Amino acid sequence: MRIRTRLLALSLMIAALLSLTAAASAHDERLEAMKTTARRFFMEYFTNDQTALLTELVADDFVYSSPLGTFDQMGFSALVGAFEMAIPDKSVSLELILADGDLLVTRHVFRGTFSGSFVTPNRVVEPNGQPIQVYAHAVLQLNADGEIARVNEFFDLVTLYSQLGVIPMQAGAGDVSAAADMPISEWMIADFPEEFQVMTREHFPINTLKIVLEDTAANAPLYLADDFQWHSSPADPSQVFDRDAFVANLTGLRAAIPDYAVELGMTVVEGDYAAITLTGTGTFLEPFSLPGGQTALPTGQPVALTVHTIMRFGEDGRAVEEWDMLDNLAYGIAFGLIPPM
């Protein structure tokens, strides 16, 4: 009787393990299918402007938002067509794809040569034959049918417009000749335990607010590694600042905008990476020193700043690296450094 009971218990344990394994396998397959959709959207559709593929990949009520505006499926197709005409050799390479729930986050690079007219509703920009390289982050949301329902893409219009010749060339925005031929490959995602990812989903937004809004100098060692690296430039990811520079920037920002408040977007976590969107608002009342060395003088005007952040974590739970993506055109206008366009 005891033997039968033990065998039954063992059988139940094996069945439970097999069930968990099958569930984990199905979960992994679903996430990989989501990533395949993201790859097809950027690397097949956007690169080759295949209209039929767009209708296959996106929902009927698809919405695309970026610094260029908000577009439905038809409007987005026209936007991609304008880039196809202006930059016929355009391509998109993915550095990172995170999948979590119904959300995807990508970090990618848009490249090509400005060899055709860029036609917009307001003007026609003639080609200058220059190489184009623009880094971007995107948040994709899928519906229940696995179609892309919404894309929020974040990139720097100063970089894009400088390279297109729409505005005068800005420092760090146009010298892409040396980097244009550098190969791009997807980053590896560490296989961190699910428990770590669950804790990150819970604590990452809370810790972000503590660092941004509270005593940054005191909180930074708790949440950021000693050798933390901060990639603050959307145009040049090789420009890296350390933890002290990160602390100084946030401390200066809060001093310049005393009523600074932050609204957080949805968190996406996979492996050792996490991503989140932050929108900061307040009134610009004191001088602010930017990481590049410029000092913005107060305007007394309200500002709204949106940045998309990707962080990589170490095994101790502290962030070891951060990539920020923001629109320097909106940033410069808000701080009075660039006149409104």
Concise overview:
The protein is α+β, with helices and mostly antiparallel strands and 341 residues long. It has helices spanning 2-48, 51-57, 73-86, 157-164, 194-213, 216-223, 243-256, 328-334, and strands spanning 58-66, 69-72, 91-100, 103-113, 118-119, 124-125, 131-142, 148-155, 224-231, 261-264, 268-270, 273-283, 288-289, 295-296, 302-313, 319-326. α1 (2-48) packs antiparallel against α2 (51-57) and α5 runs antiparallel to α6.
Amino- and carboxy-terminal Cα gap: 84 Å
Number of domains: 2
| SSE order | HHEEHEEEEEEHHHEHEEEEEEEH
| Low-pLDDT runs | 20-24
Secondary-structure content class: alpha+beta
User: Using only CA atoms, what is the Rg?
Assistant: 23 Å
Could you report the average pLDDT, rounded to the nearest whole number? 87
* Principal-axis shape: globular
Contiguous helical run count: 8
Helix content range: 25-40%
By CATH reckoning, the class of the largest domain would read Alpha Beta
Any guess at the CATH architecture of the largest domain? Roll
Number of strands: 16
Topology-level CATH name of the largest domain: Nuclear Transport Factor 2, Chain: A
Q: Tell me the major beta sheet.
A: 6 strands, mixed
